[in-house]
Structure formats: C-alpha cells, structure tokens
Amino acid sequence: MSERRGQALTALKAAFPHTLPILTGFLVLGTAHGVLMSAAGFAWWWPLLTSVVIFGGSLEFVATSLLQAPFAPLQSLLTGLLVQARHLFYGIAMLERYKDMGRKKPYMIFSLCDETFSINCTVDVPEGVDRELFMFFVGLLDQSYWVVGSLLGGLLGDFIPFDTTGMDFAMTAMFIVIALEQWLKDDRHFSALSGLLCSLAALMIFGQDSFLIPAMALILAALLLGRGIYGGEGNAPGGDGSAPGGDGSAPGGEGNAPGGDGSAPVMEGSASGGEEARS
C-alpha cells in the first residue's frame, strides 16, 4: 500500500507542472462561467454542480442558456452532442492508452477535455513514473481547476454584484487565439477553412438563431470527408497535426456566448491553458 501511495505521489508531482498553464486558464474561465450563471439567476452551487457532472467547458456556457430556455430535450441533446462532437475523435485516439486503466478508465473517459487530451498525447512521461497514474492525475487536476474556478465565480457573483457586460466574450476570445494557433501550425488549413465556410453557409441559410446545429453537422461531415481524403498524415484532419473538429475549426458552440445570441463562430481546441472546451 505504501509503495502504491509513493507511486501516486510521484506521478502527481510529475503531472502538476504540465498542468500549470491550464490552471491559470481554467481558473479565469471557470470564474467567468460561475459569475455568468450567477448573473443569470442561478444559485452559487449551480456552477459547482455543472462543473462536477458536465465538465464540458463550452457546453457549460451553452447549458446556461439551455437551462433558461423552454423545455426542449431533443434540441438540448443534439446541441450537447454536436458541441462536444470532437471528443469522439479524442476518444478514438486514446483507445490504446486507456485500454488497461482498469477502474480509472471511466473517469479518464469522462475527464477527457481538450487540454487533458493535449497533455496526455504529447508529453513524454518521465522515467520511473507510472504512465497510467500520470494521465489520471492530469485529468483530475484539470477538472479540479475548473471546479474551483466555477465555485469561486458562483460565490463572487452571488455576494459581490458587479457589471458582467462583455464577460460572456471570454470563451470566444480564447478560442479565437486557439484558432490562430491552429492556423499557424497546420500547413493545409483544412480544419479552419472548413469551420469558417460551413459556419458562414449555415448562418446565411438558417439565420443567427438557428445556425449552430446545422453548422456543426456540416463541419463534422467536412472533417470526416477530409479525413478520408488526407488519411492519417500529420496535418490532415484527424492526424497528429490538428485535432479534428477542435482547434478553432468549428462554429458558435464554443464561442457562442450563453444566451445563444450567435456570437463569433469559433470552437474550442486542444490548447493548454484554455477549456472547453474545454468545450
């Protein structure tokens, strides 16, 4: 038992430095999420609850507006599935790494956000550190940062009233930066251009209030088509160069501020320090 405890502590110490950029980003974004939920009329514990049971970053921002909207379970389900559709590809990419994780596997699947995926896919685990424990603590630390930030935001919004105008742009701003980073590292720009063109087409056809789901469906189809054309090359959609469906390639879901007002068509990607995300 003491040996296992020592391995866990070693893995935690090894994982923590790699999550520091995410700590700063998640505390800020989580606090914004909590404050916005509080401003929307939710009690302080609602941001805490959504961060524990959803942990979807951008989906939690969208959930604020979904919880205020008329009861529409099918639309909410489709929105959630499409906003987080990129996790399908993340999960496929992590099948080999997670297959022998035993009791930790369900939590690893649940906690697989963009930032956790990015670290666990790219970081070389130090010699002498248990790889499975390392990946587990990366996921646990990342979610902990988001939960703490959301709780802090809920408490601040509940007890310290202040003007939240413009705060709902926090996610959009972050994903614009992520999209620019993805553009710079991807030679073909297939993902970014697919997201932009599909978003514009859906916006023109369906209008500002209804373009999100059609745009996400078009982007998913485009990325699947691109994956078939480019195969598994590094800069192809689905290769190592750019996460499919993430990295700023998709519309509204992530950058869409709570309230569904059709803000900038940008989506969450795999960057350290973001969410969520996150979405």
Keywords:
13 helices; 62% helix; globular; 279 residues; disordered C terminus; single chain
Give a verbal description of the structure.
- The protein is 62% helix and 0% strand.
- The chain is mainly alpha-helical and 279 residues long.
- The chain has a domain at 2-165.
- Helix 2 runs parallel beside helix 10 (131-159) and helix 12 (190-206) packs antiparallel against helix 13.
- The radius of gyration is 18 Å and the shape is globular.
Q: What would a concise description of this structure say?
A:
With 279 residues, the chain is mostly helical.
The proportion of strand residues reads under 5%
Distance between the termini: 37 Å
| Category by helix and strand content | mainly alpha
What is the N-to-C order of secondary-structure elements (H for helix, E for strand)?
HHHHHHHHHHHHH
How is the topology of this model organized?
Elements: H1 2-15, H2 20-39, H3 45-53, H4 58-68, H5 73-83, H6 86-93, H7 95-98, H8 105-110, H9 114-122, H10 131-159, H11 170-185, H12 190-206, H13 212-230
